[in-house]
Task: inverse folding
């Protein structure tokens, strides 16, 4: 097959190329995708390898953020003689480091590329883990934890962005959600390993995914869209060809990337202030809004204080924590599988509705503890709220609702047994999809500034909720979870009214529809 170069000559492709089969001459042999729509492709070995290398950073995220601090707590405090206040600093300083990393994440990823940013972040993570391994006092512990946080702040932005930019539109949602799946795997596996090895060995194990990513980065291609933004058109074409396969027809997709990137570069030189123009209002509202609602829905409070919540509700803290770990990975896997089948919006709506009802049931469990006649039902509602509940309802006559689609739906007139899980509901959609959408909706010229802002908002929200949770619980345990439930309910309305469906659309199509003024201004450019 003859490859068309995008590096020479004038391109006549429109800003958005309509999806259509290739014309005569587009067909290719072997593994080619010539007869398919532009941007529609199968998962090649290079694409899978690139995603796996990238999500090693996500594994580090889960290991450090959730998995390490809980099993290491008693060992660190006993061996180094730390007080509870000193260990609390060790736990919370990670979020401060993540906010510092988030502020610079977009700029670094734009300057040195997505691969370079991932490698740069792993340097911080490696130094941080080694500082923890060899620490002799609280100062070195905190310094190492701060370095890991800086690396995590970078990784939390660049990993989903890189995956979104290298995957074809028909696979992008599922591949990008692997980021959240690996966070769950990192947290769960580290939590379990922490019961078998001491805290220094556990920290040393934490360096393994960092090293895998550093070693693997030279063997995967850079993001074609970042290469186009940098004016490296031939490198963009070569990277896209590697990702789509040797015999894939890439000229139309490459031309669209080039045309859209050049249009945005001619519109303006992007600055942070440009992000707050009316042109980008909807993208900014959706990106920041999803992150705010994700964090203020209370998930980090529930994850960080799972043991205390279950103990307060009358259950064993150990049983509660293990049960939460047991549902995270399967539900995140389910969300990954369904992402490009059911779409982003149905999964977000199901997830937000599940977390809303979950928080409501937890609130009821605490409320019942104040009533002697109902006190014995409190633990049951806690278990239903945080882990799951059974809901029976008839289906509408015209078929399955979106909730039934999520669990495999049934025919008309039947009853469906729907099991929703608080932790699982979050993992199904609200855990990973806001990051997927963040990586899709911002134009390439604004992605750095927008990504830094959205990532910073996420980490700031995480810190606020984690800090305020104990004070809220002292004020009113039931009231705290009713507040979380209300915020999750607002999330349902927010998604229904403002969040677009991005399934099956190229990044350029999504960004042009989200920022229509940019597309209109194209016609006024000389």
Result:
């Amino acid at each position: 097959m003859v490859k068309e170069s995008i590096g020479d000559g004038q391109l006549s492709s429109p800003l958005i190329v309509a999806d259509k089969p290739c014309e005569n001459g587009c067909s290719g042999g072997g593994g080619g995708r010539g007869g398919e729509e532009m941007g529609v492709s199968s998962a090649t070995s290079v694409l899978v390898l690139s995603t796996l290398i990238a999500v090693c950073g996500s594994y580090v995220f889960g290991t450090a953020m959730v998995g390490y601090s809980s099993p290491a707590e008693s060992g660190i405090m006993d061996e180094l003689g730390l007080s509870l206040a000193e260990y609390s600093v060790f736990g919370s300083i990670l979020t401060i480091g993540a906010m510092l990393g988030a502020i610079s994440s977009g700029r670094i990823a734009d300057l040195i590329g997505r691969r370079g940013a991932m490698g740069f972040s792993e340097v911080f993570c490696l130094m941080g883990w080694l500082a923890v391994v060899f620490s002799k006092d609280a100062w070195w512990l905190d310094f190492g934890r701060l370095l890991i946080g800086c690396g995590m702040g970078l990784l939390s932005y660049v990993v989903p962005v890189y995956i979104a930019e290298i995957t074809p539109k028909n696979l992008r949602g599922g591949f990008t959600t692997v980021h959240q799946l690996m966070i769950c795997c990192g947290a769960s596996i580290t939590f379990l390993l922490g019961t078998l090895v001491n805290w220094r060995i556990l920290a040393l194990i934490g360096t393994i995914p960092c090293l895998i990513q550093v070693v693997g980065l030279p063997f995967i291609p850079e993001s074609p869209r970042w290469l186009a933004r940098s004016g490296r058109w031939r490198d963009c074409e070569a990277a896209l060809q590697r990702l789509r396969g040797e015999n894939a027809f890439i000229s139309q997709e490459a031309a669209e990337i080039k045309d859209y990137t050049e249009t945005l570069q001619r519109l303006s030189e992007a600055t942070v202030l440009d992000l707050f123009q009316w042109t980008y209002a909807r993208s900014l509202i959706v990106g920041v809004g999803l992150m705010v609602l994700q964090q203020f829905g209370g998930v980090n409070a529930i994850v960080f204080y799972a043991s205390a919540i279950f103990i307060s509700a009358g259950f064993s803290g150990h049983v509660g924590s293990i049960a939460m770990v047991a549902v995270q990975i399967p539900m995140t896997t389910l969300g990954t599988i369904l992402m490009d089948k059911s779409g982003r919006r149905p999964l977000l709506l199901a997830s937000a509705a599940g977390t809303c009802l979950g928080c409501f049931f937890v609130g009821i469990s605490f409320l019942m503890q104040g009533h002697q006649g109902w006190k014995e039902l409190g633990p049951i509602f806690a278990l239903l709220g945080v882990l799951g509940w059974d809901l029976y309802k008839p289906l509408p006559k015209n078929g399955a609702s979106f909730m039934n689609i999520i669990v495999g739906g049934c025919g008309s007139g039947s009853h469906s047994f729907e099991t929703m899980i608080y932790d699982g509901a979050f993992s199904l959609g609200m855990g990973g999809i806001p990051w997927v959408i963040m990586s899709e909706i911002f134009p390439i010229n604004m992605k750095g500034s927008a990504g830094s802002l959205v990532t910073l908002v996420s980490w700031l929200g995480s810190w606020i909720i984690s800090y305020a949770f104990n004070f809220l619980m002292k004020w009113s345990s039931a009231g705290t979870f009713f507040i979380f439930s209300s915020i999750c309910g607002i999330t349902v309305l927010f998604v229904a009214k403002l969040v677009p469906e991005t399934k099956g659309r190229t990044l350029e199509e999504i960004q042009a529809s989200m920022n229509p003024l940019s597309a209109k201004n194209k016609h006024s450019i000389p």
Observations:
- The longest helix spans residues 84-133.
- The CA atoms of residues 81 and 415 lie 58 Å apart.
- The first strand starts at residue 389 and ends at 394.
- Residues 1-36, 385-420, 517-526 have pLDDT under 50 and may be disordered.
